[in-house]
Design brief:
Number of strands: 19
Strand order of the largest sheet: 4-12-11-10-9-5-6
Shape: globular
CATH architecture of the largest domain: 3-Layer(aba) Sandwich
Radius of gyration: 22 Å
Number of domains: 2
CATH superfamily of the largest domain: Type I PLP-dependent aspartate aminotransferase-like (Major domain)
Helix content: 40-55%
Strand content: 15-25%
CATH topology of the largest domain: Aspartate Aminotransferase, domain 2
Length: about 400
Amino acid sequence: MDWAAFRRDFPILEEVVHGHPLIYFDNAASSQKPRQVIEAISHFYAHSNANVHRGIHELSDRATGIYESARQRAARFLHARDPSEIIFTRGTTEGINLVAAAWACENIKAGEVILLSEMEHHSNLVPWQMAARKTGAKLRFVPVHGDEAVLDLEDLERQLSEGVRLVALTHISNTMAVVNPVRRICEAARRAGAVSVIDAAQSAGHLPLDVQEMGCDFLAFSSHKICGPTGIGVLYGRKEILAGMTPYQGGGEMISRVEYHSTTYNVPPHRFEAGTPDIAGAAGLLAAFDYLDRVGRKAIFHHDQALATTLASELRSMPGVRVFGPSGSRAGLVCFTLPGIHALDFATMADQRGVALRAGHHCNQPLMEKLGVAATLRASFYFYNTESELTRFLEILHELKRKLA
């Protein structure tokens, strides 16, 4: 694989930060964008800018074609049965909130259980807290064990036999680099009569996803983590479930007929897409899907995993360094702490040397508290990162350890 050729597609990677070449190791927060995506967005505004579904003129037809092509492409990206199972959102967070508001709050009764894991991002925790308060449901958690954050699958199976109505779990943890066995989890949920929701924010750009093989009822991810633009995301929903759901928001496009005192709603997915959507974002996302298909998500995963495994191994060889996540196979990120050095101090000084890291709780506060840490450092990789960047980062790490310890 010619990774260097793909890297040349990303203009921002030529940036100089504080006098140093940029080393961008914050990909779990947001990925960078190739020229092909940037040009697709620019081309839309230059040649096709209009509203979708509502005009009879040429530009509206072009815009609608781009928007619906992106929906069809998203369905293929996830191996969904039909494009009608694809809802465009602002991102993973809105996708999960949509399910919480339009399905959970309408279907879960007082005393029934919403089951999460202890490793969930706030976006897959807070919406369910809100739904539980509104419905009187109970919120329960599958424990994770130790710094390796091993999900207790036996406990999950046990809890599923105790009145669970919905299971919402992350595919890849944004802090622990754990790849959860989502097919097994969704199968167990289906046997128990529970609806399954998968947070694929960290997996969509790194692993091939097949929602039919996985057996999930809902799955959400964001464009900006898969080389696409910010402001748009995808929610997959099984069409049998979407058909019975009420709208998440009201307004134009999500209606079939409006009268002064009543409204007939549109069919899914349009029922859940009120107002003018992010059409330019859909153009960029369409280009991102095509780009990732050229690279290949299996190859991406192995490339990123190799960098993360090397970094984790180097860190574990340093006295006092605490490394989180699996000691064996892991996804392409590493969270760690350095003895006697605050994560924010280290990240600030690394930035002065051109390195973009994430420092803090990473929207994982409850898990961080359970692990007894206020903040960690996170290095997260993508296919345009290189071994030479990792070597340079390790040199900077040793330098800053000496200065800050």
